[in-house]
Amino acid sequence: MSTTTSGGNGTWRNWGGNVAARPAREVTPASVEELAAAVRRAAEDGLKVKAVGTGHSFTAIAATDGVLIRPQLLTGIRSVDRENMTVTVEAGTPLKRLNVALAREGLSLTNMGDIMEQTVSGATSTGTHGTGRDSASIAAQIRGLELVTADGSVLTCSEKENPEVFAAARTGLGALGIVTAITFAVEPVFLLTAREEPMPFDRVLAEFDQLWAENEHFEFYWFPHTGNTNTKRNNRSAGPEKPMGQLAGWFEDEFLSNGVFQVANWVGRAVPAAIPAIAQVSSRVLSARTYTDIPYKVFTSPRRVRFVEMEYAVPRGALVDTLRELKAMVDRSDLRISFPVEVRTAPADDITLSTASGRDSAYVAVHMFKGTPYQAYFTAAERIFTAHEGRPHWGKVHTRDAAYLAEAYPRFGEFTALRDRLDPQRRFQNDYLRRVLGA
Fold first, then answer.
1. Core-most of 47, 170, 383, 419, by most CB within 10 Å?
2. Tens-place pLDDT, residues 276-321
3. DSSP-H helix ranges across 71-199
4. Separation of alpha carbons 321 and 314, rounded Å
5. Longest dimension (CA), the chain
6. How many CB atoms lie within 10 A of CB 140?
7. Among the listed residues 428, 367, 414, the one whose alpha carbon sits nearest the alpha carbon of residue 177
8. Are 337 and 236 in contact (CB under 8 A)?
9. Packing angle between helix 375-387 and helix 319-332, nearest 10 degrees?
10. What is the pLDDT of residues 362-409, one digit of tens each?
11. What pLDDT does 301 receive?
12. Cα dihedral 91/96/98/100 (nearest 10)
C-alpha cells in the first residue's frame, strides 16, 4: 500500500477542472484488507475518508481534506459465474477495461452510458446511466456488492443478504462505505444496430412517445440556437456485424466530434457572438449513418473535448414540456451555448436514491465548454428542471440540498437512516454530502 502526504503539489482536481481538493494524505491500497486498515487508521487520526475514481463527477462528491483513497490497484475481474450469468469485478476497474474483458469472455452488460472512462464503483455510486426503454442504469444491473464500512469491517450485500443495504448502496454516493467489489448481471454478447440521423427538433418532440416506444434505446442531441437535432436509435440485431469503417469512424468520432468540435468551442469561447452561426453548421455536419457492432462499441464514444455538465431526471411524461421551456429560455436570452443538449430515458428502478427510483424518467443534460462561464445557463436550466420535479444527477453540477431532495425522493429517509446506522460518526462525510443528505 502506498501512502503519500499531500505537499505543495498534493492538489486533486476532477476531469472537468471545476473541483479541487487538498487531502491530508492519499492511499493506494492493493487489497481490501489494506483499504480496511486505511479506514481504521483514518478514524484513529480523526480524518474523514473519500474514495475517488477517475474524477468524472462535476460535483465535489469525492473531494476531501482527509484521506483520499485511490482504487487503481483494485482492478480486474474476480470471477465469472456462467451458471448465474454474473461477473464480479474489483471496484477500481475502469468501465473500458470491464467492457473489453467481458467481450473477450463472450459477455456484455445489457446497457451502459456513453463514456467508459469511469471506474465501475464511481459510475454506479453516482447513478451513471445510458438510455433505455426497458433496461436501466449501470447500478440497476448490480446483483451484489462488497463494501468497507466506517469501522473497517467488510460487508457484503445482495437481494438476499443485507437487502436494505443493497437497496441503497448500489447508488450510495460514497456515503455508506467504500465499495470494493461489484457483481454485475451479464448476458451473452449481442449485436446492436445503431441508426443515427438528423431530425428537426419539433418533429422529435411531436413523435417522442413513438420514438421511445419503438426503440430499445433512443436518444437525441439538440443544438441550441437551432431547430436541429441528431437522433440515435440502438436496437438488437441478428447481424451480420457491420462496424463503422475505420476512416469513417475516425472522421465522424475523432475529427468532427472531437477535433473540429474542439476548435469550434475555442472560437466560441473567444467570440461568443459567433456561436449561433457555428451551431447551425455543426448541427448539420454529422450525416446519417447505420452500423452494427457489439454493445460497448455502439453505446460508448470518445469524449476528448472537456466540459462542465448539469443533468436532471424529470418524469418521462414531463420531457416534452421541459424541452420546449428550455428552448424558449435559450431563444429569448442572450446566452451563447456551443454544446448540444443530450436527452435520454430510463425505466423506473428500485434503488433508493437512483434518479429513476420509482418513476419512469427522462434525462436532460446541459453542457458548457470547459473554461466558459456556465452559471447563468445552468441556473436558468435548473429552474425549469426543478419546476418539473427534477432530480439532479449526483455527479453533475446542481444546487439542490437535503430539504429539496427529501421531497424529490420518497425513500430519502430510508437512505439517511441507513447512513446513521452504517456511519454514525460520519467518517465518509464531506461538504457535498452534508449539503445533499443533511448533517
1. 170
2. 777 777 767 667 889 999 999 999 987 778 889 999 999 999 999 9
3. 95-104, 120-125, 163-169
4. 10
5. 61
6. 24
7. 428
8. no
9. 150
10. 999 999 988 889 999 999 999 999 999 999 999 999 999 999 999 999
11. 84
12. -160
CA distance 131 to 111: 8
Give the DSSP letter of residue 273: G
ω before 240 within 30° of 0 (cis)?
Answer: yes
Burial letters for 112-135: b for 16+ Cβ neighbours within 10 Å, e otherwise? bbbbbbbbbbbbbbbbbbbbbbeb
21-26 contacts at long range (C-beta below 8 A, 24 or more positions apart) = 21/60, 21/62, 21/63, 21/64, 21/65, 21/68, 22/65, 23/50, 23/64, 23/65, 23/66, 23/67, 23/68, 24/65, 24/66, 24/67, 25/67, 25/68, 26/67, 26/68, 26/69, 26/70
- DSSP class per residue in 204-224: HHHTHHHHHHH-SEEEEEE-T
Q: Please give the distance of CA 221 from its chain centroid, rounded to a whole number.
A: 17
Length of the chain: 439
Q: List, in order, residues 6 or more apart from 265 with CB less than 8 Å away.
A: 305, 338, 339, 369
Look at residues 404, 408, 402 and name the one whose alpha carbon lies nearest to residue 433.
402
Residue pair 292/191 in contact (Cβ under 8 Å)? The answer is: yes
Q: Is the dihedral of CA 426, 427, 431, 437 positive or negative?
A: negative
DSSP per-residue letters across 211-267:
HHHH-SEEEEEE-TTSSEEEEEEEEEE----BPPPHHHHIIIIIIIIIIIHHHHHHH
Predicted structure pTM score: 0.93
Helix or strand holding residue 422 (H, E): helix 412-422
Contact 418, 164 (CB under 8 A): yes
Question: Phi-psi region for residue 401, left (φ > 0), alpha (ψ -120 to 50) or beta?
Answer: beta
Q: What is the mean pLDDT of the chain?
A: 92
Residue with cell 470494493: 180
Cell numbers linked to 156: 457484503
Q: What's the start-to-end Cα distance of the chain, in Å? A: 32
What integer pLDDT is reported at residue 274 of this predicted model?
Answer: 75
Give which of 157, 100, 75, 159 is closest to 296, Cα–Cα.
100
Contact 26, 42 (CB under 8 A): no
Q: Which residue has the cell 460518526?
A: 425
pLDDT band at 82 (very low <50, low <70, confident <90, very high): very high
